[in-house]
């Protein structure tokens, strides 16, 4: 790849001051004027205030073309730049220029993703293809991979990859093996305990010739344990008129569960938000009349101002002997001045709404001194204040929100760790391929989801989307942990970018941080619900995931029998809707029948010595080909990890979290 | 609005194929300006109302020292005590550490001790680790005297001290350069210690925490 080629972008208006601007961005700036080629393609972009982009071509890993002709550049270190909108068709001119310098390969999995590769490597690939040695997937010839020599081709393919990227090829293959063992093993065990030995033999046999290890992850995708993901529809937001149908003449809200389902399905129209948020967050009670509601509001208001007076009257002298209070106050002051200050509601010097943020958080400290103030709370409060636009109302709605998410702010962070574990459990079930990938790259701690979960995606979304997501989450439909499914849905969306770019832990972290403000919330909500329905409809879901998604425990039944009718999505004629969701199921957990970890299968394999054989076999191949001694430790660690995972996921997780990430 | 996207060719600007990746961690109380220092250094921008950091973030920056190009990978973490258990795993493998306080915030200065201890414990590093103490926000009214800060640095293993302002771009690049130089010195000292005619049984080089940039 050529050195010294730079892709750069900046606002045309900056052109006059460009050189000085450029000079501070890149230390190589002094030589800026010495370029001898410059190809330009004109583009327009709707977004303001994008920082100038400059990427050494050598750092460009891939780019993604949007349906609308936009282009997103992704660097090797995971940096993902804002989309650039080209004039119609001119994106092709850009690509044309780019192709003079690098070879570009279209991703097999994601048709909008293009991977930049070394021209030398691309030429080599072509040669190999011409020699008909590298297996083609569904090539134009058709059925090529099914031919009699396909096993040999796969062996070649595996070694070809081994040569190019020994660590990935090996650990990838090994972890695929493990997941296949664990998941197919679990399935078979449930179906037919006697047939187990045959299956183990089959797996062993297939590994013997490296069949199914290359290309891709076919061993896994062949045997799915989940049903297909259904299509999901969403509606427009509920309007004021529609809401009135739920309210009786005295102001009581009827059919609360149905209303919540309606809100889940479409969100709330902006001019109705203020009122309905008060209900969803417990400031108003659904069954109270207008009169009772006003009474409750007055009481809440008084209560608020009493607590506000408490901290307002703490003197400086008192504070000098009240360090816990002083610390909380100081942190709140620092944080409100950097919370959403680019939003019109909070922008500008001496903005009274910033003072309100401060006062409400200080009052919350008096309301719940033990929890106090933790970073992230100001992010949860700001949108509530924006919607309610009233100090005591915002406070009590905030109290209601905190009652839902206070575990996010545990002193020992156990609430956050639990959620990261829960995401891990779900991904392991719904996307074993991604899970294997993340495990191999030391990313199975899901740390990159931390910000998503701590402030419920608030930093990732613009205001309109944040408000929409939150009101949907507050309904508790289709299950209380929908936010975890939103995380899984987002990872599903980013999966191809992460895997095709071969991102490791730091790159994933950077990429995930960078996609902030570029998330389509309606599509994500659809996908999250679809994943829920997919898991719910599937017969063999481990109890660990059932607990997270509030599904009834698995019954020891014949898997071929039809499942009992699901309560989500609700039937049209069922007024109460998912009423059966919250429990009431006979807890016939059947702990003797259900296998939720697959540990048995791994044990069986261990006793047969299969794990050792395979890892040694591949290990020596790696040592031989790469000549790299460090590689040995790295790949030998994988079986141990997998074995641990087979036994206690939690222990494994804890240790992963307490170790380094990089 | 018309913008330009350009591919430019810098004929003579051959970049080293492999630059050394060094890991820098910025620590200090919430609100002392850790993210702002990082952003000023890497992009030379300052946003008065930038968000407080949640979780961890990092940026890469290439920097030249003595004819060699280094890639600094700068890690920025959330400063509140509560997030300690999710922050400390990132300390491992660090090459340098910026201990940061704000000169208008005496408690943040007092907490330097706590930050240093936390880092040494979790990063598992030696006493001669290249720390740099940074007093940020010199554009504001001073409430921590320079002498006080320098005295603390002397008592804690003669740590170098620098005062900066991310806002008005004072000494920011200089502080990272200072840190890098100190690290490079320690590295070269260690190299001198490992004599060329010594047989090393562990097969590795020195205890350098380096990885080559995968370019």
UniProtKB/TrEMBL annotation, chain A:
Q: Does the keyword Ribosomal protein apply?
A: no
A single cellular component GO annotation: cytoplasm
**Any GO MF annotation of the entry:** GTPase activator activity
Query: Where are the stretches annotated Disordered?
Result: 544-598
Looking up Pfam families in the UniProt record yields: PH_RBD (PF12068), RabGAP-TBC (PF00566)
Q: Name where it's found.
A: Cytoplasm
SMART domains attached to this UniProt entry: TBC
- Matching PROSITE patterns, A to Z? TBC_RABGAP
Q: Which parts of the sequence belong to the Rab-GAP TBC domain?
A: 267-477
Biased amino acid composition, Low complexity: 586-598
InterPro entries per the UniProt record, alphabetical:
Rab-GAP-TBC_dom, Rab-GAP_TBC_sf, SGSM1/2_RBD
Q: Which UniProt keywords apply?
A: Acetylation, Cytoplasm, GTPase activation, Phosphoprotein
Major place of residence: cytoplasm
Q: How does it assemble?
A: Interacts with non-phosphorylated form of RAB8A; phosphorylation of RAB8A at 'Thr-72' disrupts this interaction. Interacts with ARMC12.
Q: What does this protein do?
A: Acts as a GTPase activating protein for RAB7A. Does not act on RAB4, RAB5 or RAB6.
What's the protein name? TBC1 domain family member 15
Q: What is the lineage of its organism?
A: Eukaryota, Metazoa, Ecdysozoa, Arthropoda, Crustacea
From TrEMBL, chain B:
Transmembrane intervals = none
Q: Which species is listed as the source?
A: Chionoecetes opilio
Q: Which cofactors, if any, are listed as required?
A: Mg(2+)
How does this chain sit within the bilayer?
Lipid-anchor
The answer to whether keyword Membrane applies is yes
Name by which UniProt lists this protein: small monomeric GTPase
Q: What is its main location?
A: membrane
In the UniProt record, what gene is named as encoding this protein? Answer: RAB9A
Q: Which family does it belong to?
A: Belongs to the small GTPase superfamily. Rab family.
**Catalyzed reaction equations:** GTP + H2O = GDP + phosphate + H(+)
Write down the top EC class of this protein.
Answer: hydrolase
SUPFAM superfamilies to which the protein is assigned, alphabetical: P-loop containing nucleoside triphosphate hydrolases
Q: Which GO terms describe its cellular component?
A: cytosol; late endosome; lysosome; phagocytic vesicle membrane; plasma membrane
Q: What is its EC number?
A: 3.6.5.2
Is Cell cycle one of the keywords UniProt gives this record? no
Where in or outside the cell it occurs: the entry states: Cell membrane; Cytoplasmic vesicle, Phagosome membrane
Q: Which InterPro entries match?
A: P-loop_NTPase, Small_GTP-bd, Small_GTPase
Q: Name one GO biological process term.
A: retrograde transport, endosome to Golgi
* Molecular function as annotated in GO: G protein activity; GTP binding
Keywords, sorted A to Z: Cell membrane, Cytoplasmic vesicle, GTP-binding, Hydrolase, Lipoprotein, Membrane, Nucleotide-binding, Phosphoprotein, Prenylation, Protein transport, Transport
